[in-house]
């Protein structure tokens, strides 16, 4: 996310939540059109980018990070125990599905025995995640804790390079978190999507490849996954694993902000997890037009555009992260780009899954800003 982290707090339509109904369309495309007026029923913000910059740093989170770092530095496991005790308290109250669960996973590893460690590393992607952070006496994990919780000033702290580095490490720990299934229920998303072997999937905004590698297994040797991101380090990590595990059906592609770069008419599915809120809120109309049109062109006529994003939750429920967007805003916007909502799912309050199809007759049309 480093290329588009903004130190801003953006709240559109502060204090609302909406309900959406479908009305019969009165224009020629014969598709049900989402209502343009949203009914405001509470003060919950519809879209919020407050902590896209980084997760909030809290006193207890910092203390736990400090204890975990001491455990790594001194090899004294009583520090890991103290860190774990704090994570147990703050996970249910401070974040939902954030990096704390990954840091607790490291505490569990340090505190575990041979058998429990073996189980933690049984999945080859979890093992690779562990190796990334634990190599060279846990150099990357120590660096992450020092940078994130500002425990030590590094030579590039405060510079753009330093910000990019912490953004990368934070995204990496967050998205490849071995405990992601536990909070996201990712496997239910896959069950719902019924991915067929032999198909081609463009994973746009793939990050360090959490979904990419799962798609690779599902499409099989006859299929293809194109892993696309603007951050080269994520793609480098994916490439390192494809050669390590001899995976032949993943290609990486570094895109520009205004085009996903996927060949026209090539994808059965374009998938975006936790990216559309960024597209919606940070791109100019012209760039957004080019970006969404590039996704539309990439899809085969019967292809699916799948958007997983962060839901507005009711008060008292922790959001997954700072940024969230009411799904109705995405459904409404994509309607005007020529996409109709075909299916939707929600397995946890913090995340929804929207499946769109290109509207017949519009599937090759580019939509541009009219003003
Ligand atoms: C919140 S992360 C999600 C990563 C991944 N989809 C996942 O769920 O594990 C969003 C990703 O989108 C990438 N990104 C941002 N703008 C992009 C763009 N215009 N095209 C492609 N990727 C983009 C960021 O670099 C980041 O890796």
Number of helices: 13
| Topology-level CATH name of the largest domain | Rossmann fold
Helix-strand topology string:
EEEEEEHHHHHHHHEHEHEEHHEEHEE
Tell me the major beta sheet: 7 strands, mixed
Q: In terms of structural class, how would the helical and strand content be classed?
A: alpha/beta
Number of strands: 14
Integer count of domains: 2
Strand order of the largest sheet: 9-8-7-10-11-14-13
CATH class of the largest domain: Alpha Beta
Query: Given the C-alpha coordinates, what overall shape results?
Result: globular
**Small molecules bound:** S-adenosylmethionine
CATH level-four homologous superfamily name of the largest domain: Vaccinia Virus protein VP39
Helix fraction, binned, reads 40-55%
If you compute it from the alpha carbons, what radius of gyration comes out, rounded to the nearest whole angstrom?
21 Å
Mean pLDDT: 87
Low-confidence stretches: 1-28
Task: Compute the separation of the termini in Å.
Answer: 30 Å
Indicate the proportion of strand residues.
15-25%
CATH hierarchy: architecture of the largest domain:
3-Layer(aba) Sandwich
């Amino acid at each position: 996310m480093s290329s588009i982290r903004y130190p801003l707090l953006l709240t559109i339509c502060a204090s609302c939540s909406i309900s959406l109904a479908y009305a019969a369309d009165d224009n020629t495309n014969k598709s049900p059109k989402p209502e343009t007026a949203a009914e405001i029923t509470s003060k919950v913000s519809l879209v919020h980018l407050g902590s896209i910059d980084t997760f909030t740093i809290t006193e207890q989170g910092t203390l736990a990070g400090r204890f975990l770092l001491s455990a790594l530095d001194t090899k004294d496991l009583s520090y890991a125990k103290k860190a774990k005790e704090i994570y147990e308290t703050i996970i249910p109250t401070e974040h939902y599905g954030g990096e704390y669960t990954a840091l607790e996973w490291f505490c569990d590893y340090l505190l575990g025995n041979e058998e429990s460690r073996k189980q933690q590393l049984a999945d080859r992607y979890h093992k690779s995640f562990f190796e990334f952070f634990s190599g060279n006496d846990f150099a990357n994990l120590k660096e992450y804790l020092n940078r994130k919780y500002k425990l030590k000033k590094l030579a590039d702290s405060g510079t753009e390079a330093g910000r990019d580095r912490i953004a990368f490490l934070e995204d990496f720990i967050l998205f490849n978190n071995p405990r992601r299934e536990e909070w996201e229920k990712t496997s239910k998303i896959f069950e719902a999507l019924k991915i067929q072997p032999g198909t081609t999937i463009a994973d746009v905004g793939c990050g360090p490849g959490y979904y990419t590698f799962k798609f690779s297994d599902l499409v099989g040797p006859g299929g293809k996954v194109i892993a696309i991101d603007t951050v080269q380090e994520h793609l480098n990590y994916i490439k390192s694993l494809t050669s390590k595990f001899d995976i032949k059906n993943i290609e990486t592609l570094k895109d520009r902000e205004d085009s996903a770069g996927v060949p026209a008419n090539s994808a059965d599915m374009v998938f975006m997890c936790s990216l559309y809120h960024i597209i919606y809120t940070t791109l100019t109309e012209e760039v957004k037009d080019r970006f969404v049109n590039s996704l539309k062109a990439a899809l085969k006529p019967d292809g699916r555009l799948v958007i997983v994003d962060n839901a507005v939750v009711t008060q008292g429920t922790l959001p997954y992260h700072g940024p969230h967007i009411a799904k109705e805003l995405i459904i409404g916007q994509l309607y005007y780009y020529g996409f109709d909502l075909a299916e939707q799912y929600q397995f946890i309050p913090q995340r929804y899954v929207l499946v769109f199809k290109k509207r017949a007759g519009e599937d090759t049309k580019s939509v541009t800003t009219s003003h």
